[in-house]
């Protein structure tokens, strides 16, 4: 009870301040132009819109340029703009990262629903379906959180992987810095001497061999928090809300790096603050999507469901376009030899 | 005004030299991913930028110069510049939906782009004009007075230019319609809005001068914000799930006291009103209300909002 209200209160206050910020927001108006644009990544999207436009020059004549930009920015707002894009774009802004997480969840939710357990490599293949050049390193790091840096070829559940991946992907730069701080604390150096933004990746791996004396494993939580709080203050990339980091760290005396990451990934409030995924309990719950999937399944003859006869053409075959509207997915043309030979799918369904 | 640039983008790009906002943004962002891409689009992109651009589209062997030429000729450069200027003027909290909306409107406006080429009927034309005016009015929050004023005058021009046959000018009917639309979209309850409309509406056949138009628009937007603030206030009073009538009334009375006393011409009056609404005075009043031995009942949201709005509307100067 007590914790329930304690949790709810700050959120309501947060909502109120964001509402008032929407109405007046003096800080937004006081920023210099370029800072305002940089803060909201306006130019990133404008540049991207132009390069997309150039890539699809041929389609413009029929759409019109304004229409093209409308669709582009609509798809950015809906978060469908990151599908099948290059990794550098996907990680370019917090919004893109959140959109990608959401897309990954929505596309492969069924994996979790079926209760399938997959290996790190298999999850990586799934990620590459959405982003062909997705780096293996990032998937590995996420898997390390789930498996506590141990037995890397183990199977993982979808939700475990997803939430670990979310932390690793969304807060990538922040975690790099955290790893550096952790490493310094562990070796007794003063973390303040670290130049954080340029800390090289994978630094945390050169830690000394695990000591089995578990009492002294890891670093002292309160000291760790002091450095992290400081880090959050000056970090230019997104970091989890410091209050929640504090909450995570105040529950324990000492903790290890992976212990910390696991706690972050399982933290309900951090997931909410990030805003890309639903609560763990609702992860498999998306009735609208289920309905859509079932409808699609029913339309695919001979796939999973019992083959439906050609007379079901009454319902229009509207495949949900998830990609950018100007970049149609190239579905392999279905060639069903046993059908009546008509290849004009749309005409067929009209009759 | 800035918006007309966008409309006339095809021939409006003679003002290439005013790329300042674009370039500033691009260079300052270097070091971030945006910075790299900014190089690419700049009209005077150096050779280094060309390989960037080509990498993005390996299939096409066209040089960057022709890409720039294409962007310029198609009016993309001018269109984006106008859009960027609009974003900077309005500084929306969420620029991406703002841009989507902006381009949507742009596309609808020019039949060549939107595809809706057939000449619209008179009524449809009127609706379009109102829609366009609304869009201008909403581009900037009314607290950004310069931007808001600009947009109000653009909206006024939009509405006044009614066809070739009629004389230019805005009639009361259109003005009232616009006010109603603003209130409806603001989702304020009918009973709150109608007293305001009665005060600031004009008769259907009357010509509406610009000053009245601006006053009406501003008042309408301020009321809507006032109502949403009052709503937030009620949310606070309603903390336990039931807003105490005595406390609500005390808050309303304090508000009334602060609003009614004296004229607002003297700047010091604002300070006085502010202090009356400050935590000290308000808390005392609420405390007193709670201690008073009156029967406890609750006040509903609608009643609270209506009472608060009445206080506001009482201060609105009637038009005409």
Task: Describe the 3D structure.
The complex is a heterodimer of chains A (351) and B (320). Chain A is an all-alpha fold and 351 residues long. Chain A has helices spanning 2-23, 26-30, 33-39, 42-55, 57-63, 65-78, 87-90, 94-113, 120-130, 136-146, 158-170, 172-186, 221-234, 242-250, 257-266, 268-274, 287-299, 345-350, and strands at residues 117-118, 156-157, 219-220, 254-255. Chain A contains 18 helices and four strands. A two-stranded antiparallel ribbon of chain A has the order 1-2. Chain A has a two-stranded antiparallel sheet with strand order 3-4. Chain A starts with a helix and ends with a helix. Chain B is mostly helical and 320 residues long. Chain B has three domains: 1-55 and 62-86, no CATH class; 122-237; 238-314, no CATH class. In chain B, α14 runs antiparallel to α18 and α15 runs parallel beside α18. Chain B is elongated, with a radius of gyration of 26 Å. Chain B starts with a helix and ends in a 6-residue tail after the last helix. Classes of the chains: A mainly alpha (351), B mainly alpha (320). Chains A and B meet through α1, α3, α4 and α6 of A and α3, α4, α6, α7 and α8 of B.
């Amino acid at each position: 009870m007590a914790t329930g209200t304690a949790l709810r209160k700050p959120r309501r206050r947060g909502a109120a301040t964001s509402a008032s910020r929407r109405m007046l927001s003096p800080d937004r108006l006081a920023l210099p132009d370029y800072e305002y644009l940089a803060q909201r990544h306006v130019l990133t999207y404008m540049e991207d819109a132009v390069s997309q436009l150039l890539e699809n020059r041929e389609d413009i004549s029929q759409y019109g340029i304004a229409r093209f930009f409308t669709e582009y920015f609509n798809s950015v707002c809906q978060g469908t703009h990151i599908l099948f894009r290059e990794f550098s774009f996907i990680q370019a802004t917090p919004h893109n990262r959140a959109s990608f997480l959401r897309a990954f969840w929505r596309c492969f939710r069924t994996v979790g629903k079926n209760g399938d357990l997959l290996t790190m490599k298999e999850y990586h293949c799934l990620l590459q379906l959405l982003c062909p050049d997705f780096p293996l390193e990032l998937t590995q790091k996420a898997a390390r959180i789930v498996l506590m840096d141990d037995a890397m070829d183990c199977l993982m559940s979808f939700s475990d992987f997803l939430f670990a991946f979310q932390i690793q992907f969304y807060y990538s730069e922040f975690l790099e810095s955290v790893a550096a701080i952790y490493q310094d604390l562990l070796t007794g150096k003063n973390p303040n001497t670290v130049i954080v933004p340029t800390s090289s990746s994978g630094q945390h791996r050169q830690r000394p061999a695990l000591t089995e004396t578990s009492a002294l494993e890891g670093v002292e939580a309160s000291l760790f928090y002091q450095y992290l709080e400081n880090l959050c203050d000056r970090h230019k990339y997104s970091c989890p809300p410091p209050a929640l980091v504090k909450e995570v760290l105040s529950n324990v005396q000492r903790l290890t790096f992976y212990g910390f990451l696991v706690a972050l990934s399982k933290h309900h409030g951090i997931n909410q603050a990030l805003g890309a995924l639903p609560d763990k309990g609702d992860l498999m719950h998306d009735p609208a999507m289920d309905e859509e999937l079932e409808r699609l399944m029913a339309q695919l003859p001979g796939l999973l469901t019992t083959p439906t006869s050609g007379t079901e053409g009454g319902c229009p075959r509207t495949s949900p376009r998830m990609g950018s509207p100007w970049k149609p997915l190239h579905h392999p043309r279905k060639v069903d030899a046993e059908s009546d030979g008509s290849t004009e799918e749309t005409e067929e369904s009209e009759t | 005004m800035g918006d007309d640039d966008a409309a006339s983008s095809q021939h409006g790009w003679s003002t290439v030299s005013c790329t300042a906002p674009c370039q500033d943004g691009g260079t300052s962002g270097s070091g971030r991913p945006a910075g790299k891409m900014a190089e690419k689009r700049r009209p005077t992109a150096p050779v280094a930028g060309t390989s960037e651009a080509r990498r993005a589209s390996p299939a096409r062997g066209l040089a960057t110069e022709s890409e720039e030429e294409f962007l310029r000729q198609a009016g993309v450069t001018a269109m984006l510049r106008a859009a960027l200027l609009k974003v900077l003027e309005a500084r929306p909290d969420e620029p991406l939906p703002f841009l989507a909306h902006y381009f949507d409107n742009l596309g609808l406006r020019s039949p060549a782009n939107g595809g809706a080429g057939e000449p619209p009927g008179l009524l449809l034309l009127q609706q379009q004009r109102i829609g366009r005016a609304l869009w201008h009015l909403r581009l900037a929050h009314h607290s950004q007075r310069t931007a808001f004023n600009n947009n109000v005058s653009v909206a006024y021009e939009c509405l006044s230019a009614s066809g070739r046959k009629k004389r230019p000018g805005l009639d009361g009917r259109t003005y009232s319609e616009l006010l109603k639309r603003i209130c409806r979209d603001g989702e304020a309850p009918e009973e709150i809005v109608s007293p305001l409309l009665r005060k600031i509406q004009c008769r259907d056949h009357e010509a509406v001068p610009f000053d009245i138009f601006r006053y009406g628009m501003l008042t309408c937007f301020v009321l809507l914000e006032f109502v949403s603030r009052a709503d937030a206030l009620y949310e606070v009073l309603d903390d336990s799930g039931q807003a105490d009538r005595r406390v609500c009334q005390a808050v309303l009375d304090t508000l009334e006291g602060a609003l009614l006393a004296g004229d607002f011409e003297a700047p010091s009056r604002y300070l006085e009103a502010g202090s009356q609404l400050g935590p000290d005075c308000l808390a005392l009043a609420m405390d007193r209300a709670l201690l008073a031995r009156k029967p406890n009942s609750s006040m509903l949201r609608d009643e609270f909002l209506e009472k608060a709005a009445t206080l506001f509307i009482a201060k609105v100067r009637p038009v005409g």
